[in-house]
Specification:
The protein is an alpha/beta fold and 415 residues long. The chain has two domains: 217 residues, 3-Layer(aba) Sandwich (Rossmann fold), CATH 3.40.50.2000; 177 residues, 3-Layer(aba) Sandwich (Rossmann fold), CATH 3.40.50. 42% of the residues lie in helices and 17% in strands. Strands 3-4-2-1-5-6-7-8 form an eight-stranded mixed beta sheet, sandwiched between helices. The chain has a six-stranded parallel beta sheet with strand order 11-10-9-12-13-14, with helices on both faces. β3 and β4 form a beta hairpin. It is globular.
């Protein structure tokens, strides 16, 4: 089977969509299938093209046996609604055109977070007369309203109609959460064509390991209790909550040896750095994005990982992918996301939940875990046991079954 996968995030980018797609596609190639990915020049989240790449109309490479075609797009940082839509729509057009030159395709996948990629997937599927599978990673455009990037308007209502059109035209929908599936069914989408395949963890990369002492010395973390946030610093994450917690802890009797590591980049990072300077936070360390193979060195430093999103109803339906990486690494979680993901944290006993944007709750959680090493050990031991239930290999095989069933059904009904 030849799978054509459309995504605007792919390695060497290291965000969650890029990692999930790469790990799944690599597994499908190993299973004997042919995979072609149409993406753009790597630039997320800074809006700057990575070294070694150019923003050209067409460039091609092979990554782990995956044929990767990179097309031109309008590149901008993840800020400003109009610029982002230009970014998304330019990729949609060039990816659609490039896909027409990919021969003998059996199924096409378009993945969110933004659904202009899914629009391209639908158009390519229609032009090639092959099934289109929508991988649903985000309820867009609802998410842009949730972060305050755009208010209810005629444009939003048009985007919502387009969203429903794509759901109905997709041969199959792969949802990353059960909450997304429930939402689609309530909106009239056939639940029989929706498969839930959550995010997961590559257990070959994310497993318990001792602290990287060289890196610990370099960052000045020796003898410290280290909390960390590793990921995109965007509008959705409300990382100001973490900085405000560290401001309270810097003068707390038990907070003197607590440090916060913030690794990553994103639209809000300059503002966060400015806020940290304004608050005089010497207990916070900002680190730029590092290559994928180096991320686990920084994970190893953490005594606790903080996962956080803004307080909004939409985010009760999401499951941050870093939760599964923490499980694999055996790192206790302070989980500031309500809803489905908090249920997983509690069910698997891998962390402590607090309310989103609750500074007091985060402060108390940090102090509790610092003071209670026995609780930290218990949560750390539970993580790898739970992670095996979210093994990326198992989840990737399930998605491959979905793609094969979509392709087989199309072939059976073809004249």
């Amino acid at each position: 089977m030849h799978i054509l996968f459309l995504t605007d995030n792919f390695p060497p980018e290291v965000n969650a969509p890029a990692s999930r797609t790469h790990e799944h596609c690599r597994q499908w190639v190993a299973a004997g299938d042919q995979v072609t990915v149409v993406t753009c020049a790597p630039n997320f989240p800074t809006g700057r093209v990575f070294p070694g790449y150019r923003n050209r109309l067409w460039q091609e490479e092979s990554i782990d046996g995956i044929r990767v075609i990179r097309v031109w797009s309008y590149i901008t940082a993840n800020e400003g609604f109009v610029k982002r839509v230009l970014d998304y729509t330019s990729y949609m057009l060039t990816a659609t055109l490039a896909s027409l030159f990919v021969r003998r395709v059996d199924v096409v996948v378009g993945t969110s977070p933004q659904f202009f990629t899914a629009v391209a997937g639908w158009m390519v599927g229609a032009l090639k007369r092959v099934p289109f599978v929508f991988e649903l990673r985000d309820l867009w455009p609802e998410s842009i309203k949730a972060v305050g990037a755009m208010q209810e308007s005629a444009v939003i209502r048009w985007l919502e109609r387009l969203e429903l059109f794509l759901y109905r035209r997709a041969a199959r929908i792969v949802s990353v959460t059960h909450s997304f599936r429930d939402t689609l069914i309530r909106r009239g989408v056939d639940g029989g064509k929706i498969d839930v395949i959550t995010n997961g963890v590559d257990l070959a990369r994310f497993s318990p390991r001792p602290k990287d002492r060289e890196l610990e010395r370099a960052l000045g973390f020796e003898g410290c209790f280290v909390a960390g946030y590793i990921g995109t610093h965007g509008m959705a994450h409300a990382l100001e909550t973490l900085l405000q917690a560290m401001a309270r802890l810097k003068d707390h009797p038990d907070g003197g040896r607590i440090r916060l590591l913030l690794l990553g980049d994103g639209a809000r990072k300059p503002a966060l750095q400015a806020l940290a300077h304004q608050l005089g936070l010497t207990n916070v360390c900002f680190v730029e994005t590092v290559p994928k193979d180096q991320v686990v060195r920084y994970w190893s430093l953490l005594d606790v990982s903080v996962i956080h999103l803004r307080h909004t109803e939409l985010f009760t339906t999401v499951i941050p992918s870093k939760l599964f990486e923490c499980m694999g690494m055996g790192i206790p979680v302070l989980h500031g996301v309500a809803g489905e993901s908090a249920v997983i944290v509690e069910r698997e006993s891998v962390g402590v939940a607090f309310a989103p944007e609750d500074v007091d709750g985060l402060v108390q959680g940090l102090l509790r875990l610092k003071r209670d090493p026995a609780l930290r050990r218990l949560l750390a031991e539970r993580g790898p046991l739970a992670a095996h239930r979210y093994d990326r290999r198992t989840l990737g095989s399930r998605m491959l079954d979905t793609l094969r069933s979509a392709a087989a059904l199309a072939s059976n009904v073809s004249p």
